């Protein structure tokens, strides 16, 4: 009798959590490619992102190749970083690239006024950055200086890097040891020019953009993908103005949006000390990305119905208070399972908008904001967010599969959000990948995805979860939040059934 009661109770619970979860994947359809550049990263001269993060110098006892850490390069290659945005951020509009070329000990020093007022010795400059990108096998994305620079300075930077022939800048590059030009397609024309990049109005910046973009030349077969500095979150007037006045001169338009647990920049919330209510708020706020992209894309559609211009959220991620005792200008914050979930939701959103979103860059790769890697001296640590990128690399350049989806709600204190976020794609080899996030920290979710147009033979998967939503990795315990093989998916006569653990990110591979 007792056994029977237990059975019915368990069944009732299981029904309750699976009742609304419905997913149909049209596996024989799909036309949009999920650009691999959606999985891009952003690294600024800020705190210990560049110095100590990538760059230790050739004489360092930390194993390096021409001054760049080998451990970091290997870890980033494992997540297939497709592009890297540099040198900022706000730093980009104060950066004068000529200070960062030539013999290192002769390079002028400057003050990094935005980020801690520290001395920038320019030891990591253009050649070092492009060497880093070659070591990573990724495409460089360089942001030019519009705020305090000149059209001539940016134009010469493009010439220095990409011109193959006789010219003052190409000759200077050769003198500095690089005979052949590099290929650099992605160029940002300023950063946050509505704010730290010059406090410009939309109309003024649109005109500036036209000037700068004109003098960023295509040399040989290096065809530039010029990216205009885009809106701050929901500033739709900015997008409207840029599209109306300058769409013809751009290939991309950026968008910046960070997720803060609070609405208060002076007290954003702690990266680790938060309760379930704060978790709920943070996650519900991150879903705003979907609305932002939809609304900016609608404006872009008006001026660019062919969707030629890419929307590029080239700064996004979670932004919390700095860790107590650290330099407030260095933006160092811990990274928990909440961040892995937040990243996974955003990446699913970007995939869903693959028709318009052609690149994104999480801020920032190492030791800053929502980092994927921490370093401390010779030690390196992979964060929970790193593991989300590890799971999601399967979507890079795959075909987005159309889905029909509805799910249970995760409810707290009378507020409700979707309990599950999902994305589906098919890669060049015909393998189907689903990435599923169970946002609910308390209940597992059962879902039986119906895959139309294919006969499934095998399923395997990986899962990322931990004991608590604020679990994080430390140098002493680096695997508190790490990927494991997933045993919660079953194929029975071709029918798939999945049990997603509470607060987890799951990647399934189906053949
Ligand atoms: O990523 C940190 C800063 O946030 C960037 O420098 C700036 O572009 C944004 O405001």
Count of individual beta strands: 28
Q: Average the pLDDT over all residues and give the rounded result.
A: 96
Radius of gyration (CA) equals 23 Å
The low-pLDDT segments are: 1-16
Distance from first to last alpha carbon: 43 Å
Number of helices: 11
Structural class: alpha/beta
The fraction of residues in strands falls at 25-35%
Describe what this molecule looks like in 3D.
The chain is α/β, with parallel strands linked by helices. The chain is 26% helix and 25% strand. It has helices at residues 2-18, 70-78, 126-136, 151-162, 168-175, 202-215, 236-246, 276-286, 288-303, 337-352, 384-392, and strands at 22-26, 40-42, 64-65, 68-69, 83-86, 110-112, 118-120, 139-144, 186-189, 225-232, 252-259, 310-318, 361-363, 373-376, 379-382, 399-400, 403-406, 409-412, 415-418, 420-426, 432-438, 445-447, 450-452, 459-465, 482-485, 489-492, 495-500, 504-510. The strands form eight sheets. An eight-stranded parallel β-sheet has the order 12-11-10-9-8-5-2-13. β26 (489-492) and β27 form a beta hairpin. The relative contact order is 0.14. The structure holds alpha-L-arabinofuranose (AHR). Residues 44, 88-90, 191-192, 315, 363-364, 369 line the site of alpha-L-arabinofuranose. Alpha-L-arabinofuranose is lined by residues 44, 88-90, 191-192, 315, 363-364, 369.
């Amino acid at each position: 009798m007792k056994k029977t009661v237990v059975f019915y109770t368990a069944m009732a619970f299981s029904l309750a959590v699976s009742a609304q979860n419905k997913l149909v994947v049209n596996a024989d359809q799909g036309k949009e490619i999920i650009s691999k550049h959606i999985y891009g990263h952003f690294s600024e001269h800020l705190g210990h992102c560049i110095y100590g993060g990538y760059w230790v110098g050739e004489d360092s006892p930390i194993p390096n190749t021409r001054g760049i850490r080998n451990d970091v390069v290997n870890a980033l290659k494992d997540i297939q970083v497709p592009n890297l945005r540099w040198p900022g951020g706000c730093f980009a509009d104060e950066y004068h690239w000529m200070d960062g070329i030539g013999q290192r000990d002769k390079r002028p020093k400057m003050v990094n006024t935005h980020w801690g007022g520290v001395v920038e010795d320019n030891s990591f400059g253009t050649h070092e950055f492009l060497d880093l990108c070659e070591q990573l096998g990724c495409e460089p994305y360089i942001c030019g200086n519009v705020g305090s620079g000149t059209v001539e300075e940016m134009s010469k930077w493009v010439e220095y890097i990409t011109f193959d022939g006789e010219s003052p800048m190409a000759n200077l590059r050769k003198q500095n040891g690089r005979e052949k030009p590099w290929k650099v397609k992605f160029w940002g024309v300023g950063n946050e020019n509505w704010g730290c990049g010059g406090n410009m109005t939309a109309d003024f910046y649109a005109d500036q953009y036209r000037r700068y973009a004109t003098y960023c030349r295509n040399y040989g077969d290096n065809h530039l993908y010029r990216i205009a500095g885009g809106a701050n979150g929901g500033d739709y007037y900015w997008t409207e103005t840029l599209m109306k006045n300058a769409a013809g001169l751009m290939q991309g338009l950026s968008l910046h949006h960070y997720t803060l647990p609070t609405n208060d920049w002076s007290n954003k919330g702690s990266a680790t000390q938060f309760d379930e209510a704060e978790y709920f708020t943070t996650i519900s706020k991150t879903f705003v990305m979907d609305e932002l992209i939809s609304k900016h894309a609608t404006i872009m559609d008006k001026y660019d119905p062919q969707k030629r211009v890419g929307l590029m959220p080239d700064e996004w991620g979670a932004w919390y208070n700095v860790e107590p005792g650290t330099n407030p200008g260095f933006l160092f914050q811990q990274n928990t399972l909440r961040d892995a979930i937040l990243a996974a939701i955003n990446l699913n959103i970007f995939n869903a908008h693959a028709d318009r979103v052609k690149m994104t860059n999480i801020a920032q790769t190492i030791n800053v904001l929502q980092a994927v890697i921490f370093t401390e001296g010779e030690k390196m640590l992979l964060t929970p967010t790193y593991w989300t990128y590890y799971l999601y690399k399967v979507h890079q350049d795959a075909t987005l599969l159309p889905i029909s989806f509805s799910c249970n709600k995760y409810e707290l204190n009378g507020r409700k959000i979707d309990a599950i976020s999902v994305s589906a794609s098919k890669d060049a080899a015909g393998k189907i990948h689903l990435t599923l996030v169970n946002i609910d920290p308390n209940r597992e979710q059962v879902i039986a995805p119906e895959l139309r147009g294919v006969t499934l033979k095998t399923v395997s998967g990986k899962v990322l979860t931990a004991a608590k939503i604020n679990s994080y990795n430390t140098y002493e315990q680096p695997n508190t939040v790490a990927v494991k093989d997933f045993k919660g998916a079953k194929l029975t006569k071709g029918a798939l059934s999945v049990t997603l653990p509470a607060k987890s990110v799951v990647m399934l591979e189906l053949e």
